[in-house]
């Protein structure tokens, strides 16, 4: 096996990093919600905790500041005096009052009096700010938890692709499977051939993308994925693999990216699973072992044979030859 840099890993992760963005990095802040959703979980939790901690301390300090400027801290135990917030003696009591107000706990021991207009204004500001922060952060966490990325891990692709004849035609084939009993609604599959090439004008394209037809015209790309399926690309005169032979496969350098999309039946969210096959993972003259068998009243899928292949007689020549 020749180790080389992949454009897409086997697990679907794209090996692309964006650098030297310059002033364009400000676009991340303009779409702050999506930026937070795209962050890793550890950074999301850190931002979540820091935002609430800082907001609580700042708002509690504002309540304490009002009590300090009005002199409530020194006269809080005077029954004849009407403070802004009853029973606020120090910063901890001001912090507890903020928490009771923010969480709508309302123990009844601390409350705003009607002779404190600045406290009423601060209460309204706290209610609005708290609602905005809650909606933003909780919405971000909910969207991140409900992302169907983990559902893509239960969609399987064969470790290797094979080239052999089917119905008298040379075909590139690979296998896909769904490990869950829940279905993928409107499942669709696409394939891209990524290969460097040079145009007649002399322009070099390092990662040129060509479409591999897996049944777009016939509807074969629309999958009913209740059991493992073998996806077939017919190599003909319109195929980018028209000149591929068993001999040239050893010297070629390309990557086939497979993209499987569908709607998760249980959540209704769109899920995408990806993988890729390099030239070393394309087996010439092989076919996949059957995995389906009929049992007593149902069809049984043996996933232990999902990746297994066996050799079959296949001409070593390209379709062009």
From TrEMBL:
Q: May I have one GO cellular component term?
A: plasma membrane
Q: Where is this site: Role in the control of polyamine-mediated channel gating and in the blocking by intracellular magnesium?
A: 134
Task: Identify the SUPFAM superfamilies for this entry.
Answer: E set domains, Voltage-gated potassium channels
Pfam families of this UniProt entry? Answer: IRK, IRK_C
Q: What is its main location?
A: membrane
Q: What reaction(s) does this enzyme catalyze?
A: K(+)(in) = K(+)(out)
Q: Which residues cross the membrane?
A: 45-66, 120-143
Residues of the Inward rectifier potassium channel C-terminal domain = 155-320
GO MF term list: G-protein activated inward rectifier potassium channel activity
Q: How does it sit in the membrane?
A: Multi-pass membrane protein
* One GO BP annotation of this record: potassium ion import across plasma membrane
Residue intervals of the Potassium channel inwardly rectifying transmembrane domain: 8-148
Mind listing the UniProt keywords for this protein, alphabetically?
Ion channel, Ion transport, Membrane, Potassium, Potassium transport, Transmembrane, Transmembrane helix, Transport, Voltage-gated channel
Q: Where does the protein end up?
A: Membrane
Enumerate the PANTHER family for this protein. Answer: G PROTEIN-ACTIVATED INWARD RECTIFIER POTASSIUM CHANNEL 1, INWARD RECTIFIER POTASSIUM CHANNEL
Name the family the entry cites.
Belongs to the inward rectifier-type potassium channel (TC 1.A.2.1) family. KCNJ3 subfamily.
What is the name of this protein?
G protein-activated inward rectifier potassium channel 1
| Organism of derivation | Caloenas nicobarica
Q: Which lineage is the organism of this entry classified under, starting from the top rank?
A: Eukaryota, Metazoa, Chordata, Craniata, Vertebrata
């Amino acid at each position: 096996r020749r180790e080389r840099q992949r454009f897409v890993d086997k697990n679907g992760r794209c090996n692309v990093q964006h650098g030297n963005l310059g002033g364009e990095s400000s676009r991340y802040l303009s779409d702050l919600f999506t930026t937070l959703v795209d962050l890793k979980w550890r950074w999301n939790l850190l931002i979540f905790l820091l935002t609430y901690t800082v907001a609580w301390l700042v708002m509690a300090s504002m309540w304490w500041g009002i009590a300090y400027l009005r002199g409530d801290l020194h006269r809080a135990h005077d029954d004849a005096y009407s403070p802004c917030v009853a029973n606020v003696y120090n910063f901890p009591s001001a912090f507890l009052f903020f928490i009771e107000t923010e969480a709508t706990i309302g123990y009844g021991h601390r409350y705003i009096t009607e002779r404190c207009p600045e406290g009423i204004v601060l209460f309204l500001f706290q209610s609005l700010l708290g609602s905005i922060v809650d909606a933003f952060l909780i919405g971000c966490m909910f969207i991140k938890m409900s992302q169907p990325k983990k559902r893509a891990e239960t969609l399987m692709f064969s470790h290797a692709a094979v080239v052999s004849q089917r119905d008298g035609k040379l075909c590139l084939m690979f296998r896909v499977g769904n490990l869950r009993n829940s279905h993928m609604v409107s499942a669709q599959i696409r394939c891209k051939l990524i290969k460097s090439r040079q145009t007649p004008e002399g322009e070099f394209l390092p990662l040129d993308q060509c479409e591999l037809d897996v049944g777009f015209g016939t509807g074969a790309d629309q999958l009913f994925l209740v059991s493992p399926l073998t996806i077939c690309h017919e190599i003909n005169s319109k195929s980018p693999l028209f000149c591929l032979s068993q001999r040239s496969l050893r010297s070629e350098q390309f990557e086939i990216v497979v993209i499987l999309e569908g709607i998760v039946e249980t959540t209704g969210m769109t899920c995408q699973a990806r993988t890729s096959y390099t030239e070393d993972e394309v087996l010439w003259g092989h076919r996949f072992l059957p995995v389906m068998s009929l049992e007593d009243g149902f069809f049984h899928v043996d996933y232990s044979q999902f990746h297994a292949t066996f050799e079959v007689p296949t001409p070593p020549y390209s379709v062009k030859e």
